[in-house]
């Protein structure tokens, strides 16, 4: 099992969710985050006071999938979240040792 | 509030004519229509302060200091209301010296529902209690304007002490100097007595009486400075006190290095708009009568404000490349400030010019000058209120000229519009501006020092980092 973590542009969330649902991923955790990569930040000006805002608002999604689903998941996210501009985000894949569904006690693959 | 208004000329002449035929010195009557308008204006000015100014300022600070600003503004309204009733009204609006009134109306002594206050027309009085309340809202908003200059770093205890001292020693004297006069009925009676005096001795006595009535006025009033609704008393006064405070208390921790962006320009938009709405009470209410003069003040308060907002927005767009919401809102407030002294004197086209000028001048002060000098006037109390007030005070001296569409200045002794003299009027206006700058600038500096010795002006660095809401008030503005 793996956790696929993706940082995406906030307005791409719905498209990514639809793409994941289409390939059979039925669970997703979403967090509002801030950060920067190559996109850097932007400048804000308030009555002449200029501020370099280096942390941009992004959405972090996390999905737990079976190992053989990882490539399909990455494809789905990449296709849906891509605009081709700097700032589209990144995907990280992390090993997942164990999973439990709290309601039933089911474990690992059955819990996903 | 104004003191010489041409619109009263016709009414005054009519009133004089009518009453001359019946009784020599008829007791002035209260006009219910004027009273109704002044009751309305009074609550409109309160609306400017709470929630208007509170939200305008609150939106501009960081969310950790939102409540502290709301509290400071609300405190000003409440404490000044009490002081005004106890002795403030008496010090500002009774005769005494040229610089301060006396205590004859302290604790509202002798002020009853039957008491009358003069307007700008003969025999058109309003209830003194509504005049008292109307002026109270002016006394309340002025110190509330100051707190924007040292927002996000002043101890609440320091503000709690500073505000009562400041209104007592700075505001009441300035209000007295600019606005206190004997009123049109007193002058009219003295003029009639002079005209009726038969022989030389009686004429001398009547002339002495008229001189005495004319001398019963504030120092700046007698210099001939005109200030319709408080450009000097409210805005220059608060603006210079704010600058002195910002200089003495020092910059906020992290100023110029850390992000200090406004936490909610939405609130600032709501606040600025409520200020505009309430300002009709401030400016049109300062006419004291629901007459053509009030309509002129209302018209000017519309067009000058819109012109200043557009001037700031387009200037910023041209220079910086973007039209900002905060720029348009700041321009609107600058326009309101500048039109305050001019509202009942300028013609509408003059008011538009005044608005266009002040929008650009205040933008220049809030950006270029402030950054060049490097003071941390958190919410631009100096750049908008003091500078805008000075532009307005000097502009009023120009725009009152009937040749430029202005109303001219009523001379109650002759009952006619006085001849306009540019140089004389501008010198008068400068007296008003400079007296206020010096009195409030030096006086405020002394008061800040006194407060610093007694309770300390500034919170410590940890408190400032944590934010004043949790540390000073043990509350958060937003629990989400």
From TrEMBL, chain A:
What subunit structure does UniProt give?
Homotrimer.
Q: Which UniProt keywords apply?
A: Nitrogen fixation, Nucleotide-binding, Phosphoprotein, Transcription, Transcription regulation
Q: Which domain of life is it from?
A: Bacteria
Q: Which organism is it from?
A: Bradyrhizobium canariense
So what does this one do? Answer: In nitrogen-limiting conditions, when the ratio of Gln to 2-ketoglutarate decreases, P-II is uridylylated to P-II-UMP. P-II-UMP allows the deadenylation of glutamine synthetase (GS), thus activating the enzyme. Conversely, in nitrogen excess P-II is deuridylated and promotes the adenylation of GS. P-II indirectly controls the transcription of the GS gene (glnA). P-II prevents NR-II-catalyzed conversion of NR-I to NR-I-phosphate, the transcriptional activator of glnA. When P-II is uridylylated to P-II-UMP, these events are reversed.
User: What InterPro entries does the record tag this protein with?
Assistant: N-reg_PII, N-reg_PII-like_a/b, N-reg_PII/ATP_PRibTrfase_C, N-reg_PII_CS, N-reg_PII_urydylation_site
Report what the protein is called: Nitrogen regulatory protein P-II
- Which residues are reported to carry the modification O-UMP-tyrosine? 51
Which family does the record claim for this protein? Belongs to the P(II) protein family.
| Stored PROSITE patterns | PII_GLNB_CTER (PS00638), PII_GLNB_DOM (PS51343), PII_GLNB_UMP (PS00496)
Instruction: Spell out the molecular function terms from Gene Ontology.
Output: ATP binding; enzyme regulator activity
- Pfam families per UniProt: P-II (PF00543)
Its GO biological process annotations read:
regulation of nitrogen utilization
Cellular component aspect of the GO annotation: cytosol
């Amino acid at each position: 099992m793996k956790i696929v973590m993706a940082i995406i542009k906030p307005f791409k969330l719905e498209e990514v969710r639809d793409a994941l649902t289409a390939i059979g991923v039925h669970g997703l955790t979403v967090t509002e985050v801030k950060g920067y990569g190559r996109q850097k930040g932007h400048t804000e000006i308030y009555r002449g006071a200029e501020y370099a805002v280096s942390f941009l608002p992004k959405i972090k999604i996390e999905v737990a999938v079976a190992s053989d689903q990882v490539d399909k998941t990455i494809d789905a996210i990449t296709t849906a979240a891509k605009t081709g501009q700097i700032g589209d985000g990144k995907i990280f894949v992390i090993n997942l040792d164990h999973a439990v569904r709290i309601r039933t006690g089911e474990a690992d693959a059955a819990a996903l | 509030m104004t003191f010489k208004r041409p619109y009263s000329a016709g009414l005054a002449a009519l009133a004089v004519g009518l009453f001359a035929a019946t009784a020599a010195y008829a007791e002035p009557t209260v006009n219910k229509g004027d009273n109704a308008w002044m009751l309305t204006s009074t609550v409109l000015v309160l609306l400017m302060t709470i929630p208007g100014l509170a939200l305008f300022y609150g939106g501009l600070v960081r969310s950790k200091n939102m409540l502290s600003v709301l509290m400071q503004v609300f405190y000003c309204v409440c404490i000044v209301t009490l002081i005004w009733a106890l002795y403030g009204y008496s010090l500002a609006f009774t005769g005494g010296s040229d610089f301060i009134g006396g205590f004859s109306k302290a604790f509202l002594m002798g002020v009853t529902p039957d008491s009358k206050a003069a307007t700008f027309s003969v025999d058109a009085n309003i209830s003194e209690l509504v005049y008292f309340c109307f002026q109270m809202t002016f006394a309340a908003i002025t110190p509330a304007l100051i707190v924007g200059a040292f927002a996000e770093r002043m101890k609440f205890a320091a503000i709690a002490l500073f505000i009562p001292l400041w209104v007592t020693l700075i505001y009441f004297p300035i209000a007295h100097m600019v606005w206190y006069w004997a009123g049109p009925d007193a002058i009219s009676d003295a003029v009639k007595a002079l005209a009726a005096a038969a022989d030389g001795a009686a004429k001398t006595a009547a002339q002495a009486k008229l001189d005495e009535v004319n001398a019963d006025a504030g120092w700046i009033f007698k210099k001939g400075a005109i200030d319709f609704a408080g450009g000097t008393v409210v805005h220059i006064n608060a603006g210079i006190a704010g600058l002195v405070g910002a200089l003495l208390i020092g910059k906020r921790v992290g100023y110029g290095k850390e992000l200090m962006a406004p936490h909610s320009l939405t609130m600032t938009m709501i606040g600025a708009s409520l200020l505009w709405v309430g300002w009709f009470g401030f400016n049109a209410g300062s006419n004291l009568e629901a007459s053509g003069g009030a309509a002129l003040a209302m018209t000017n308060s519309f067009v000058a404000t819109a012109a200043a907002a557009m001037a700031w927005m387009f200037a910023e767009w041209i220079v910086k490349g973007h039209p900002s919401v905060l720029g348009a809102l700041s321009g609107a407030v600058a326009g309101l400030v500048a039109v305050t002294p001019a509202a009942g004197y300028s013609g509408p086209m003059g008011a538009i010019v005044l608005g266009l000028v002040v929008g650009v001048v205040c933008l220049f002060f809030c950006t270029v000058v402030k950054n060049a000098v490097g003071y941390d006037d958190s919410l631009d109390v100096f750049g908008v209120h003091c500078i805008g007030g000075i532009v307005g005070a000097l502009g009023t001296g120009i725009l009152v000229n009937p040749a430029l569409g202005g109303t001219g200045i009523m001379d109650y002794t002759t009952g006619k519009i006085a001849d306009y003299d540019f140089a004389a009027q501008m010198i008068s206006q400068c007296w008003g501006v400079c007296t206020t700058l010096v009195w409030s600038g030096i006086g405020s500096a002394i008061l800040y020092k006194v407060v610093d010795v007694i309770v300390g002006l500034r919170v410590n660095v940890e408190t400032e980092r944590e934010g004043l809401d949790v540390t000073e008030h043990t509350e958060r503005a937003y629990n989400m």
